[in-house]
Amino acid sequence: ETGVTQTPRHLVMGMTNKKSLKCEQHLGHNAMYWYKQSAKKPLELMFVYSLEERVENNSVPSRFSPECPNSSHLFLHLHTLQPEDSALYLCASSQGWGSRVPNYGYTFGSGTRLTVV
Amino acid sequence: GESVGLHLPTLSVQEGDNSIINCAYSNSASDYFIWYKQESGKGPQFIIDIRSNMDKRQGQRVTVLLNKTVKHLSLQIAATQPGDSAVYFCAESLGVGRRALTFGSGTRLQVQP
After folding, report:
1. Are strands B10-14 and B107-112 parallel, antiparallel or unpaired?
2. Residue in B84, B97, B95, B89 with CA at minimum distance from that of residue B73
3. How far is A95 from chain B (nearest CA, A)?
């Protein structure tokens, strides 16, 4: 285990469903990230939270809604998704969100494999 | 945590041989680079990093080389083992004020016993 835990590991949902992905980090980090990993593209940054405040939203459609209730937990709420949203969703954390990427970069969870049917 | 389905370049090596994985990065202002390893069922894991004021850095069985002139990064793995089989990503930080990591598309390393 890396210290970043994601649940569920696998999720199949219909296009009209509402579901949430959960991420929890036990590293004492203060920045958390959502990345999307799909079959045809490199890892894409979706959202960044620093000290529970959203500091970056990388032009993600509104059907993805993040929530960061505290520095240890991050959620990604999903509603009315499309089949092209099927992907691996990775959560990561780091110590610090400043002017530079911190040393050692980010610590990733194992991801949630999402399939939209 | 695997990137199954991604049409990745693949490097196939024999166990015990040295492996070299290459990455071309995009931005001449990038000042920090990381190599990640992603095994099947897991998320990316940090291997080694290098700042732009260096051209070489060594870890345990791994070496990263940075050529800023041609914007090229390489990862060398000595005495490759079956456990090294994974997808390897380079990531770059695009410099001061561009604070998130940007990832390359990855290379799949297959180690033949």
Report:
1. parallel
2. B89
3. 13
The helix (H) or strand (E) run that includes residue A23 is strand A18-25
Which residue's entry shows tokens 């911190």? Answer: A102
Of A22, A24, A32, A71, the residue nearest A55 (C-alpha): A32
Which of B7, B42, B46 is nearest residue A105 as measured by Cβ atoms? B46
CB count within 10 Å of CB A31 equals 24
Q: Is A42 on the interface with B (CB under 8 A)?
A: yes
Q: What is the pLDDT along chain B (113 residues), one digit of tens a residue?
A: 333 344 678 999 999 999 999 999 888 888 899 999 999 989 999 999 999 999 999 999 999 999 999 999 999 999 999 999 999 999 998 766 556 888 988 999 999 98
| Residue in B with minimal Cα distance to A42 | B105
Residue A51 is predicted with a pLDDT of 81
Q: Is B41 on the interface with A (CB under 8 A)?
A: yes
Taking alpha carbons only, the member of B111, B103, B109, B110 closest to residue B23 is B103
Chain B, nearest residue to A93 by Cα: B100
